[in-house]
Fold this sequence. Notes:
Layout: E1 3-4, E2 6-9, H1 26-39, E3 43-46, H2 63-76, E4 81-84, H3 94-103, E5 107-111, E6 115-117, E7 131-133, H4 137-149, E8 153-158, H5 161-172, E9 184-189, H6 199-204, E10 214-219, H7 226-235, E11 238-241, H8 258-271, E12 275-276, H9 279-286
Parallel strand pairs: 1-12, 2-3, 2-11, 3-4, 4-5, 5-8, 8-9, 9-10, 10-11
Antiparallel strand pairs: 6-7
Amino acid sequence: MDKAIVTCALTGVLTNPEQHPVPVTPAQMAQEARDAFNAGASIMHVHLRRQEEGMGHLPSWDPDVAETVVNAIRAACPGVIINLTTGVLGADISGPLACIRRVKPEIAACNAGSLNYLKIKDDGRWAWPPMVFDNPVAKVQQFLEVMQECHVHPEFECFDVGIVRSVSMYLKAGLLKPGMGRAEYNLVMGVASGMPCDADLLALLPRWMAHGSLWQSTLIGRAEIWPLQQKTAELGGMLRTGLEDTFYLPNGERAKGNGELIATLVECARNVGRSVASPSQARALLGLPGV
C-alpha cells in the first residue's frame, strides 16, 4: 500500500507522569497531539487520566474528562481522527461506553480476545499479581453494538495469534456491521505474555487476516522495536508509536515527546517509498462513516 496511516499513542493507561514525560491534562494532551500531528500523525489514540492533583497516573472513565480532552485535541489538530481506548477488566464496561457515546470518536479500540497479562522478574517473582485481561465474545459484542450505534469504527486489538484468527471469525459471524468501515487489525507485540516483537512472526500474521482488511502494529519496548517498525512499513502495514508504547528512539536515547517519535516513524515509511496519509486520506482508506 502506497499510503501509510500514522497513529500516535499519546500517553497510555498507567504510566506515572511524575516519573515519565507523559501528558495528562487537556492542555498537555493537546500540545503533544499537535506536535505529533505536525510530524505526520493523522490519528490520536487517546487514554484518559484522572485530573485531580496527584492522581494523573490513574485512568479515568469520566465522560466530562473525555469530552474536555478530546475537544482540546480536535481544536489543536484540525481534521484529526480520534481513536479512543476502551480496555477495562471485568464485565462492567459502562465507563468506556459512556465515553464513546459522549465524544463519538471516529475510531475506538476493540480488544478482541482475552490474555493472561503477566510479567516476571529475573528473580522469579511476578512484577504484578497475575491477572486476566478478559475480553470474551459477549463483551466484544457489547462494545461493537455501541460502536455501531455511534457510527464508530472498531480497531481490533490482537495480543496473540489466536486473537488474530478470532477476528476473522467475528467478521464471518457478522459482528462488523455495514457502515462501520473496513476491517482493521492492530497487532500488539511486546507484552511479556503476548506476541513477542519478532520480525519473522510479524511477516506471517497477515496470512490469517480477512481479505481486504488493513492492519497496523503496536510495538512495545525500547530501541529494539524500531527494526520492526521498519518491517511493518515494508510489509504494507500501518504505523503507530508514541509515549504509550516506548520512550526510546532507535539510537537508544530517550525521546523528548510524541512529536519526535512520530517524526522517526514517518521516516520508516519514507525509507520504503511510502507517503504518509493525511487525515482525509486515512478516513477514505479506513472507510470511516461520512467519507
